[in-house]
Amino acid sequence: MPVTISVLSQKGGTGKTTTVRTLTDAFRRAGLSVLAVDLDPQGNLSDYLGVDPDATPTIADVLTGRAPAREAVHDGVIPADLTLAEAELALGGRIGRELTLQRALRDLAGSDVVLIDCPPSLGLLTVNALVASDHALLSAEAQYFALQGVEQALEVIKLARDTLNQRLSVLGILLNIADMRTRHSREALDSLRAHYPQQLLGTPIRSSIAYAESAQRAVSILDLRPDLAADYLAVAEELLGRLGLAQAQRRIARLARELAPPPERAPAGG
Ligand SMILES: Nc1ncnc2c1ncn2[C@@H]1O[C@H](COP(=O)(O)OP(=O)(O)OP(=O)(O)O)[C@@H](O)[C@H]1O
Ligand SMILES: [Mg+2]
Fold first, then answer.
1. Bridge partner list, 37
2. Which ligand is nearest to the CA of 121?
């Protein structure tokens, strides 16, 4: 059975899709087989991962029962497009609507990790992702109100756990798009650290314009800017540790040293 992780946030634009995209790449480089599931009608993850925009079937076909999940996997991605918005509406009227994704993914074999990119709301699609997941990873933009966004997402996670999916746990909280020169980023970090010291991941993802370029060109930040990629590699390493995937964790640590070696120390006495 794969370990399934949903990446979510209450707000839009917190870096969820970039996180799923980059972790997919990092985990694959650590030797894991990763299925990336785009659960956002915007289809950003599908674009970031370079899926043909006309590829069918998509996650919408899976959720509406028109195609089995295994047929919707295109190069390790189940893509989404705008038809997912219709599928969500159609789903709304059905009994067991929150369980649809879990049921659809159940017979998918062969992946070590499934990463689900949620849309920017805590509605039916995100609830479906949480019901299908073992873990939730929260993305919080390092801005004012980061804490409130995390609190709201945690409430929905608790609700999903209490009513629909007892095995769901919070894998971590990621401080994203952070510029520690600014007061609001430092305040966001301080408040999350004070309230969620266990869940908060040790490395914030630095803000850089390079991520927009990475998305636009569908080139992983690990290839585009290995220096910046050190952030995501540190996060990947910490997550794999929390998941108990020690071998992959060691591979990530090695990859991080190769890609972004620590600056050489000045020779003694120099
Ligand atoms: N660390 C970063 N630094 C600067 N910009 C970033 C960073 N991570 C992502 N971005 C940019 O911020 C924007 C939003 O990122 P992304 O699409 O990953 O967020 P999202 O949470 O998935 O958004 P949505 O809620 O709309 O799905 C994109 O333009 C992306 O390139
Ligand atoms: Mg997104």
1. 78, 116
2. 1
192-231 pLDDT, tens per residue?
Answer: 999 999 999 999 999 999 999 999 999 999 999 999 999 9
Q: Is 207 in the pocket of ligand 1 (CB under 6 A)?
A: yes
Domain holding 62: CATH number?
3.40.50.300
270 lies in some domain: no
Residue 267 lies in a domain: no
Protein residue with least CA distance to atom 19, ligand 1 = 15
Tell me which residue range forms the domain holding 251: 3-259
Place of tokens 């990621």: 174
The residue among 97, 57, 63 whose CA lies nearest residue 79 is 57
Query: Facing residues of 114 across strands?
Result: 4, 35
pTM of the complete model beyond 0.90: yes
Q: In the Cβ-directed half-sphere of 180, how many Cα atoms lie within 13 Å?
A: 7
- Judge if the beta carbon of residue 80 lies within 6 A of ligand 1: no
Q: How many domains does the chain have?
A: 1
> What are residue 104's DSSP bridge partners?
none
Rg (alpha carbons) of the chain, rounded to whole number? 18
Q: How far apart are CA 94 and CA 63, in angstroms?
A: 11
In a domain, 266, yes or no: no
- CA 46 to ligand 2 centroid distance, Å: 10
The alpha carbon of 16 and the centre of ligand 2 are apart by a number of angstroms equal to: 5
